[in-house]
Amino acid sequence: MDRLAKALVGDWDTVETMERGQFFPNGGARKGTVHVRLASGGYTLLYEVHSDGSAGKLDGFLTIWWAKETKLYYFIACFNNPNGPCRMRGTAHWHGESFVNDYQVMVNGKNTQWRDTFTFTPTSHTLIAALDAGDGTLKTVITTKATRTPVRVSLSSELHVRTQMTEKLLLDERMLVVVGSFFR
């Protein structure tokens, strides 16, 4: 979970592009935000999404956790779908530097294989949602590009973090932190 948290925890601005096809006959786009945080003592990652645009409004979240016994990540996806807001969304694993989630969705009465692939840089991540085209290849349906937003820390939370950090410092180091904070 540490590797995934290091890549995703934080706030992101997103741009989604929907390819023309069965799900988006005219294509489409959305802009929005994602907030990612750890929950349940660091064992679960929550990926909260809010976006809107020509493809329609999207509000929801992913819940991701690691299961030691199966050595897989599990997903629950909840979105603003009145017919079924939440469902299990497959299992995921690391494939090199990419985080890959495989799942099935019922399309026209048939279970269809889908794959979400996350790729990362220190300041961005890209999520590609693709479906099995029927010939063993994947066809991209949605591409989400996310850019990390600057960290916004309130003074009180910054002081709390500094207090926690200084508890581990020697007295001379503590004095330097206090003096440095005063003249900042």
Describe the structure concisely:
The chain is of the alpha+beta class and 184 residues long. Helices cover 17% and strands 54% of the residues. The chain has two domains: 2-148, Lipocalin (Beta Barrel), CATH 2.40.128.20; 153-184.
User: What fold name stands as the CATH topology of the largest domain?
Assistant: Lipocalin
CATH superfamily of the largest domain: Calycin beta-barrel core domain
Low-confidence stretches: 159-169, 171-184
Provide mean pLDDT, rounded. 86
Shape: globular
CATH class placement of the largest domain = Mainly Beta
- Order of strands, widest sheet: 1-2-3-4-5-6-7-8-9-10
The tally of domains stands at 2
Q: Would you count the extended β strands for me?
A: 10
Task: Give me the secondary-structure category.
Answer: alpha+beta
How does the major sheet shape up? 10 strands, antiparallel, barrel
So how many helices? 3
Percent range of helical residues: 10-25%
Keywords:
184 residues, alpha+beta, ten-stranded antiparallel beta barrel, 3 helices, disordered C terminus, globular, Lipocalin
Explain how this protein is built.
- With about 180 residues, the chain is of the alpha+beta class.
- The protein folds into two domains: about 1-150, Calycin beta-barrel core domain (Lipocalin, Beta Barrel); about 155-184.
- Helix content is about 15%, strand content about 55%.
- The chain has three helices and ten strands.
- The chain has helices at about 1-10, 155-165, 170-180, and strands at about 10-20, 30-40, 45-50, 60-65, 70-80, 85-95, 100-105, 110-120, 125-130, 140-150.
- Strands 1-2-3-4-5-6-7-8-9-10 form a ten-stranded antiparallel beta barrel.
- A hairpin with a 4-residue loop joins strand 4 and strand 5.
- It is globular, with a radius of gyration of 20 Å.
